[in-house]
Structure formats: C-alpha cells, structure tokens
Task: inverse folding
C-alpha cells in the first residue's frame, strides 16, 4: 500500500479495520456484572436494616475473600487478573446474601474461597463453570457447618429469639408465619432472602434493562404455583401453601439472581422454560418430602448440571428449516 | 392496528438517521479522475470494450456483461480513457477498473427512451439488462436476472424493500421523498414485467413522512399497497421482509421466487425508471455520507467510479476523531483501508465513524447469556456456531445451518462478551461451503 495517496492525510495509520458489525449495544461483561451487583443493593440494605449493621462484616469478608482467591489463582496460572470485571465480586456478594445473620466471618471467608476456587476456576474460569459459583460455596458451607448454616435469628423488629425460617418453622413446628412480614422482610431467614419485596424490585429492574431473561423467573413461579398447589391440595394441613413456597426459602433470590446466572443457565428460550420448571419441581419436592426446608440451592445446582443437555435438545427451529 | 414485522429476534440499534434525513439529494460534481470497476455485481466482472485513449460520452457502454450473472458497465462521464488499472474494491480485494479522465464539456450517450405503457415485458427486461442495473439492497445481484424467473416459478407478489433498516443510511428515504413519482413509476414498470396487478411497499414506521408521501403519490388505484412495518433490524433482509409483509417463509437454501415473490429495493425501482423512461444506464450511485467523523453529512448522487476520498472531500473532509471509514451501513458494511476505493453502483453509504460510535470493548469468554440466540432473526445459535468455527469443527457447524446465516450482525451487536461472532461465523460458512463444493 503506497501510503501517501491511499488515505486522506489525517486518517493515516489511525483507521481501524475490523469487520461488521461496527456498532454495539454497549453492554459489556463488566457492565452487566456491575449492574447485577448494583441491583443487589436494596436486598443488602434490607438485610442491614433488619439484622443490624454488623452484618456488613459478612458481606465484606465474602467479597474480599472471593476476589483475593480469584487474583491468587490467576496469578499462579499466569493469567490476567480479572477481578475488575465484577463477576467475582458478584459471586462473593451473592454468597454473603445466602448466609444466615451473624454467621462466622471465618466460615464466610471459607465459603467464598470454595465458591471461587471450586465453583469457578476448577472449571476454567468465567464462562466455563457449570454450576453457579455462589451456590457451590453455599453448598460447601452447608456440608461443613450444617448447624451454623441453619441457625436463624429473628430480625430486629420481631422477638429476638433464635428461630427457624418460615419454611423451617412450618416444616418442623407446623406453625405458620404471617405472610406479610415475609414479603416485606420482617421474618427470619438468610441475609438476602429476608425481604422478598427488595429482591422482587431488583429483579424486575434487571428484567427491564434486559440483563435477566424473564423466562426463568416466570417459569419457576409458574412451576411452584402449579406443583405447590397440587401437593398442597393433597393435604392442606400438612403441606405449605404455594404462596409460602414463593415467599419463603430464598425462592425469590434464587429465581431472580441465582437461577438466572448467565453462565450456568440455558441459552435457548425453550431451554429456559424447562430449566425453570425443573427447578420448581425439585424445590417443591425437596421442601415437602425431603428433610430440607431450604431446597432452592440444591434444586438450582441439580438443574445446572443438566444445562448443556437442555441446550442441545432445545435448539430453536431454524428459519426456513425444511421438515 | 398492530404493525406487521417478522417474528422472533431482531434488535433496535440507535438509528442516527437524524444526521442526514432532512438533507435532500444533491448531485456531486464530477471528480478529476474516475476509476470505474468492471466488477459491479456478485458475479463475473464485465469485459472491457475500451482501451487507453478511447473517447467516451456519459452513458457510453465501456464493458459488456460476461455471462449470465454479470452486468454491463457504462461511462459515468464524458472524457478519455487513460487505461485499465487495479484498485481495491469495497471488500478489500483488488479489481480491474477503467480509468477515465473527464473532459470540460459533458455530452450524453443514453439509450433511447421507452414508453413503459406500450412496451412489452420482454423489451423492458432487455432494457434493464442493457442498462446494467444491479440490486441496491446490498447483495448487488443483476436486476434483470431477478425479474426473469424460470418459467416453472410462478410469481404472485412483488415486494418493494423500503425498510432501510441499517442505521445512518437515509438514501432510500430521500429517494422516497425527493423522487417519489419516479419510484412509483419504477415499481409499476416492475409490476408490468412480472405481470402483476398488485404490489406492496414494505416500509418501517420510523419514516412517517415517506409513508404519507408514497400513499399520496400512489393514488387510489389500489395497485400499490404501502405497508408500514414495526421498525426492527434486520427487517431489510429479504427473508425477514417477506415474513413481515406476506407472512411467507423462504425455505433454507431457496430464493424468494420459490415462495412466489420478487423483492426489489427502492433504489432499484428508481434506477429502473431512469433506464426505461430516460434511457439512462446505471452510472450513478445514490448514497448517504454520514457518521460523526464527517464534517458535512449529506445524501448524494455520485458518478460511479468516484474515489471515496473525493466524496469525503466534497463533504468537507473528516474530523480529527474519525476512526473508521465504512462502505455500506454500520451493521453489514465493510471497513476500508484504502480511501481510493471507488464507488460502485450498489454503494449505499460511506460512513466515517468515531471511536465513540464504534464502542467495541474488550473480548471476554462467552458468558452463555443467550442474548445472541434470542436476537438472531433466523433462529440460529450464534454462540455455538462461532465456537465450532473457532475450533475448526466445520462439519458440526454445517449441521447447525451455519450457511443460512445472513451475516446481519445482530448477534455480535448484542454480545456483552464482545465476541466477533460474525467474523467467526463467516469463516465457518466459507469453510462449509468449500466442503460442500468439494463433495459435489
Ligand atoms: S449474523 Fe447470522 S447468526 Fe448472527 S444474528 Fe445475523 S443471521 Fe443470526
Ligand atoms: S451473546 Fe455473546 S456471551 Fe452471550 S451467549 Fe452469545 S456469544 Fe455468548
């Protein structure tokens, strides 16, 4: 290329030569991750309000340990350190919100290390993990500290006695908690799930800006209502009503923030429906028949494992496909 | 009323049409030197009929079609041929060009005008072939081939593509406003050729002015239906347009004529009018010069063979912030590394974009967010296709219909991980097509 005749003088050597398309909608991986993190603010605020400022320690410990783990692993593997892309902060943050109030900081840190190390980097880092890393961390803690993980304290505006979560209470004491406090946040539970209202508002925000695909929360809600109602009708005295399923046990946090994790959920629309319905069926079964009131985590992790298969079998019909 | 559109997928990129939509078409003065490419359509280049020293007039045939899928080339100006040279084409490859030095006085050597009412379909098709008209919608297919389908294909619909769904571009819009009458005349000529009493113009509802003016000019005969479509990219793709307007789905590997339809672009219809009624061969490109990197955005009528550098100069040159020059729209156009690239018959736009407008970020791993999957109007799995291409697993990519991809760019536009999906898919597509050819 003879340079002087080729280009208008001022553009020389500055022209970029990439292929189409030349426009982009401006979403980037970091921007998406930070948007989800920002959407966790209301739930976090609710957690601090109902359980006290001291809970911020759990949050910081979890986030810092998660980030440090990622940085360390990437340094050791001589990969570029990507803690700035927000995904590891989000993992730490989500994990913290699934922990009980007053949880030990050391344990929280261990959970974060497991989440990032085992949940994410064993699989090859961002984009390659099969399971939701935050839930892997939580599952690890559940196995390591089963008692601490199920010791719930009532929130600030209720009688301050150690109590089970609403679902736990219903399951083990056959005592129902009132629905409205569950919705607003004034009931016992893990940090982030205590206010379904806050979670719902943030989730709607993420759906509106297009980060969360509505199909997953929609199918999960539908599934829980259908399966929950069927089981409830079999014996309304013994089983929780479907509304309890929706408001309790971290369902909302799971449906809007955990199951919708991009990497570990299906990419096809039909796949998302199957995934969501599958989770809701498992969660209802676990809650009602299993010994575990908080089945959300297992339900999502189990369905995570099926995602590659779901994606393969739900490819959309290609436009103009013959037969 | 619910506006028609294609089902599933699609995106709404910012339109940026406000930069030029209010600017009427202007004729660009003849430049000092022209380099008229012999290759004007996706088929074979034309065979030159002139050599160094030949005197030509505006409209003189300078190269004849070489085979069926090939178009004639005429001189856009009066002047002297200074040789046959080589120049980059819009897609970067080198091509032969006829170099012409324009003279002081300009003289026309057009074809004899034809009265469309009294002419036969055969005469009209022959005129379109003689005039060397190519499709203006992007693919640059010879128009006369498209309007003479084999006898076993029954055509019952003509759809005029007035979507202009690419951001920035407003040349079709200006043609609709500034040459409404000629456009409608061109459409009626096409209807006559196809033996149709009715046709439709599919136009996106972001152009209310044009819809109004077209309706007004088309009159009340009812032979021309103006159909407003819900604005959505890539509605201007032939398959998407037919889905939106006629609710017909072109089967994979087939053409619109297989579902009884012919699609023609707005610009093509105007060119048809010019060739028949005025005897003017296809020697000018109507194009939009836009982008935040250009000083004076415009809608221009440019002689074919003008270097994009000259067009840019005529538009006041570029700003310091200019980062990329494109031929075509921002979703499907090609970045240029030579500002000497000549304008061809099918050039629809020259864009000078700044860094801010391009805004591509750093690539990360695929997040499996599924946005590319839900955005693809053809229901392909872009993430999977790109990955298979990257891994060289072309066999599997072929099974997942990679060759169906129209390279519309929607998936990459949506991808938060900034993966150059289309680049990978294009690569895979070429490999699969090669494999299929070798097998046959
Ligand atoms: S470029 Fe191809 S794969 Fe991507 S959206 Fe367009 S048709 Fe689909
Ligand atoms: S849009 Fe990009 S990140 Fe999302 S699934 Fe497609 S390729 Fe992966």
Result:
């Amino acid at each position: 290329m003879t340079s002087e005749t080729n280009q208008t003088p001022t553009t020389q050597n500055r022209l970029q030569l990439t292929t189409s398309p030349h426009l982009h909608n401006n979403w980037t991986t970091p921007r998406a991750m930070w948007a989800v993190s920002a959407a966790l603010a209301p739930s976090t605020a609710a957690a601090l309000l109902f359980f006290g400022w001291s809970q911020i320690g759990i949050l910081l410990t979890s986030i810092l340990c998660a980030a440090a783990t990622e940085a360390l692993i990437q340094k050791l593997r001589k990969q570029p350190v990507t803690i700035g892309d927000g995904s590891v902060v989000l993992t730490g943050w989500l994990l913290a919100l699934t922990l009980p109030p007053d949880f030990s900081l050391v344990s929280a840190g261990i959970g974060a290390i497991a989440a990032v190390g085992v949940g994410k980097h064993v699989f090859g880092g961002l984009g390659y993990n099969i399971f939701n890393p935050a839930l892997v961390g939580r599952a690890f803690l559940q196995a390591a500290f089963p008692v601490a993980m199920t010791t719930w304290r009532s929130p600030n505006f209720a009688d301050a006695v150690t109590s089970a979560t609403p679902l736990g209470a219903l399951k083990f004491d056959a005592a129902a908690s009132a629905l409205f406090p569950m919705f607003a946040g004034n009931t016992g539970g893990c940090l982030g799930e205590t206010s379904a209202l806050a979670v719902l508002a943030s989730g709607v925000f993420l759906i509106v800006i297009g980060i969360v695909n509505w199909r997953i929360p929609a199918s999960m809600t539908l599934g829980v209502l259908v399966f929950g109602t069927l089981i409830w009708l079999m014996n309304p005295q013994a089983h929780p009503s479907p509304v309890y399923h929706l408001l309790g046990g971290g369902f909302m946090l799971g449906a809007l923030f955990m199951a919708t994790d991009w990497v570990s959920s299906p990419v096809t629309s039909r796949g998302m429906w199957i995934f969501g319905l599958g989770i809701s069926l498992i969660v209802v079964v676990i809650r009602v028949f299993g010994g575990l009131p908080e089945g959300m985590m297992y339900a999502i992790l189990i369905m995570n494992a099926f995602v590659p298969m779901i994606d393969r079998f739900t490819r959309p019909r290609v436009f103009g496909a013959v037969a | 009323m619910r506006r028609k559109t294609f089902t599933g997928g699609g995106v709404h990129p910012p339109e940026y049409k406000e930069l030029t939509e209010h600017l009427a078409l202007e004729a660009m003065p003849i430049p000092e030197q022209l380099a008229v490419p012999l290759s004007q359509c996706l088929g074979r280049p034309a065979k030159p009929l002139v050599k160094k020293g030949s005197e030509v007039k505006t409209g003189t045939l300078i190269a004849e079609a070489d085979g069926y899928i090939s178009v004639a080339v005429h001189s856009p100006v009066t002047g002297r041929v200074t040789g046959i040279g080589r120049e980059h084409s819009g897609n970067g490859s080198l091509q032969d060009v006829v170099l012409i030095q324009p003279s002081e006085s300009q003289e026309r050597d057009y074809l004899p005008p034809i009265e469309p009412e009294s002419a036969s379909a055969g005469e009209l098709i022959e005129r379109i072939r003689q005039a060397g008209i190519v499709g203006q919608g992007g693919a640059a297919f010879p128009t006369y081939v498209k309007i003479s389908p084999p006898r076993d294909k029954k055509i019952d619909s003509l759809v005029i593509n007035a979507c202009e769904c690419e951001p920035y571009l407003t040349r079709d819009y200006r043609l609709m406003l500034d040459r409404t009458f000629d456009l409608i005349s061109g459409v009626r000529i096409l209807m006559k050729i196809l033996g149709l009493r009715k046709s439709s113009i599919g136009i996106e509802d972001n152009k209310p002015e044009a819809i109004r003016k077209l309706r007004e000019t088309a009159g009340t005969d009812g032979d021309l239906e103006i159909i407003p479509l819900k604005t959505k990219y890539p509605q201007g793709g032939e398959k998407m347009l037919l889905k939106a307007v006629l609710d017909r789905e072109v089967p994979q590997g087939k053409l619109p004529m297989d579902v009884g339809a012919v699609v023609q672009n707005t610009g093509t219809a105007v060119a048809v009018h010019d060739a028949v009624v005025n005897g003017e061969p296809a020697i000018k490109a109507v194009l939009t010069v836009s982008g935040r990197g250009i000083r004076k955005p415009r809608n221009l009528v440019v002689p074919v063979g003008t270097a994009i550098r000259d067009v840019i100069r005529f538009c006041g040159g570029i700003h310091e912030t200019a980062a990329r020059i494109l031929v075509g729209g921002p979703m499907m156009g090609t970045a240029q590394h030579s500002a000497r690239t000549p304008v061809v018959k099918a050039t629809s736009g020259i864009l000078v974009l700044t860094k801010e407008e391009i805004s591509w970020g750093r690539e990360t791993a695929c997040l499996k967010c599924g946005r590319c999957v839900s955005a693809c109007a053809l229901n392909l799995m872009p993430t999977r296709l790109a990955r298979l291409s990257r891994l060289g697993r072309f066999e599997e990519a072929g099974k997942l219909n990679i060759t169906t991809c129209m390279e519309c760019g929607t998936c990459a536009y949506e991808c938060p991980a900034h993966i150059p999906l289309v680049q990978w898919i294009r690569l895979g597509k070429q490999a699969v097509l090669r494999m299929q050819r070798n097998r046959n």
About this structure: Residues 29-311 of chain A form a domain with the Ammonium transporter fold fold (CATH 1.10.3430). The two ends of chain A are 50 Å apart (CA to CA). Confidence is low (pLDDT under 50) at residues 1-14, 159-164, 171-176 of chain A.
